[in-house]
């Protein structure tokens, strides 16, 4: 599959950095009106996938690592940043990332008030096959993930509730890895 092309005009000024945050009130209002972009990263090793049980909305269940893009940031730059922030994997070569697909996820709830308004994201998803030392180095953030585990691709359904739309989304990502 092709990568997501990123085009940026010369002279663009990115007024914010990945560490900048808008106020909770402003962000909550934005979530009511906008679809936001995320980059998700599927860590694989041989025939296994790393799944993480998130402890925060909008997805407080099994998922893959990832997070929001920052305005002006190329998808592969976001995936490198999220690998560092979320899994402590620094300096991954962007040439190792394999584009998997883009998925639209509309969640029923979110962290921000009013929680029941939910949120909607487009998730640009990449896969990277880790080496043994990289696999052993993975350590996910405890403030965002309760636990994580490596699981055989054929056994992912054992962790999921198949009457949940987001579990179906995760299964679609796993299915698309096999293409």
Task: Write up this protein.
- A hairpin with a 2-residue loop joins strand 1 and strand 2 (48-54).
- Strands 1, 2, 3, 4, 5, 6 and 7 form a 7-stranded mixed beta sheet that branches.
- It contains 4 helices and 7 strands; from the N terminus they run H-E-E-E-E-H-E-E-H-E-H.
- The model has no long low-confidence stretch (mean pLDDT 93).
- The protein has a single domain (28-177), classed as Nucleoside Triphosphate Pyrophosphohydrolase.
- The chain has 179 residues and is of the alpha+beta class.
Kindly summarize this structure in a few lines.
The protein has helices at about 25-35, 75-85, 130-135, 165-175; strands spanning about 35-45, 50-55, 60-65, 65-70, 100-105, 120-130, 145-150. With about 180 residues, the protein is α+β, with helices and mostly antiparallel strands.
């Amino acid at each position: 599959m092709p990568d997501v092309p990123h085009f940026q005009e010369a002279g663009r000024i990115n007024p914010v950095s990945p560490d900048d945050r808008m106020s909770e009130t402003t962000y909550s209002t934005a979530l009511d009106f906008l679809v936001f972009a995320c980059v998700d990263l599927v860590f694989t090793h041989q025939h296994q996938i790393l799944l993480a049980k998130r402890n925060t909305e909008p997805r407080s269940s099994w998922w893959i690592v990832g997070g929001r893009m920052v305005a002006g940031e190329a998808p592969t730059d976001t995936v490198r940043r999220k690998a560092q922030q979320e899994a402590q994997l620094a300096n991954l070569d962007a040439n190792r990332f394999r584009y998997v697909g883009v998925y639209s996820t509309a969640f029923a709830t979110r962290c921000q008030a009013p929680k029941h308004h939910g949120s909607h994201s487009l998730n640009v998803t990449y896969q990277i096959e880790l080496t043994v030392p990289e696999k052993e180095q993975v350590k996910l953030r405890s403030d965002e993930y309760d636990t994580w585990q490596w699981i055989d691709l054929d056994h992912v359904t054992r962790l999921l509730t198949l009457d949940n739309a987001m579990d179906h989304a995760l299964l679609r990502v796993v299915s698309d890895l096999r293409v």
